[in-house]
Amino acid sequence: MRPKLVLLDRDGVLNEDRDDFIKNPGELIMLPDSAAAVGKLTAAGIKTAIVTNQSGIGRGLFDEAMLTRIHEQLRNETARFGGHYDAIFFCPDPPWAAGPNRKPEPGMLRQAMSRFRATPGECVLIGDSLRDLQAAQKAGCRRILVRTGNGAKTQAQGLPPEVLPVSVYNDLGAAVDTLLGE
Ligand SMILES: [Mg+2]
């Protein structure tokens, strides 16, 4: 069954990740076909919410106003393909002061489900890191790993049994095509 709400990790799923964080809109580089994939979800009437750890804020590398500008850029790049994000949730916590919203904790996912009145069974999370899958498992959502970003490494390191089952696709485009075929 098609999901009602798709929860999207950002870095490594929508855009290229960077070891030194995406600190301004100029550092945001979309992954091939990711914007088109979001456009397909939007056209299908499926809600999308980004759930992203942004510890660069807590580390003092950039502020919330800059993150807003980065997300305007992300929205613009995606809108060129008809794609829309219905909400963007971010967690600014640094790892050494992580609260209940920082993945692998499920706080942001629960907020998104509540906002769109979606049950865990109506949601799927798409991420590239183990902590995405762990957050989705805690929230009770289906889990998809894409091999972009950290994804190939995440898969190669082996997925712990508690996060299984996990569906694995090469990229967001392949994941979305499969979801829309359901
Ligand atoms: Mg990621």
Itemize the secondary structure elements and their pairings.
Blueprint: E1 5-8, H1 34-43, E2 47-53, H2 55-58, H3 64-79, E3 87-91, H4 107-115, E4 123-127, H5 130-139, E5 142-146, H6 151-156, E6 167-169, H7 172-180
Parallel strand pairs: 1-2, 1-4, 2-3, 4-5, 5-6
Helix pairs in contact: 1-7
This protein binds magnesium ion.
How would you characterize the overall build of this protein?
A 6-stranded parallel sheet has the order 3-2-1-4-5-6, with helices on both faces. The protein is globular and about 40 Å long. By secondary structure, it is α/β, with parallel strands linked by helices. The mean pLDDT is 97. It contains 7 helices and 6 strands. It has a single domain, classed as HAD superfamily/HAD-like (Rossmann fold), CATH 3.40.50.1000. The chain has helices at residues 34-43, 55-58, 64-79, 107-115, 130-139, 151-156, 172-180, and strands spanning 5-8, 47-53, 87-91, 123-127, 142-146, 167-169. Bound molecules: magnesium ion. Magnesium ion binds at residues 9, 11-13, 17, 127-129, 149.
Question: What's a quick, concise take on this entry?
Answer:
By secondary structure, the protein is α/β, with parallel strands linked by helices.
Q: How many DSSP helices?
A: 7
Mean pLDDT across the residues is 97
Kindly state the number of beta strands: 6
CATH topology: Rossmann fold
Fraction of residues in helix: 25-40%
Biggest beta-sheet profile: 6 strands, parallel
- Please report the first level of CATH classification, the CATH class: Alpha Beta
Which molecules other than protein and nucleic acid are bound?
magnesium ion
Read across the widest sheet, the strand sequence of neighbours is: 3-2-1-4-5-6
Q: What is the CATH architecture descriptor?
A: 3-Layer(aba) Sandwich
Structural class: alpha/beta
**Based on CA inertia axes, which overall geometry fits?**
globular
Total separate domains = 1
Superfamily (CATH H level) name: HAD superfamily/HAD-like
In whole angstroms, the N-to-C terminal distance is 5 Å
User: How large, in whole angstroms, is the Cα Rg?
Assistant: 15 Å
- In terms of quaternary structure, the protein is single chain
Order of helices and strands: EHEHHEHEHEHEH
* Low-pLDDT residue intervals, each spanning 5 or more residues: none
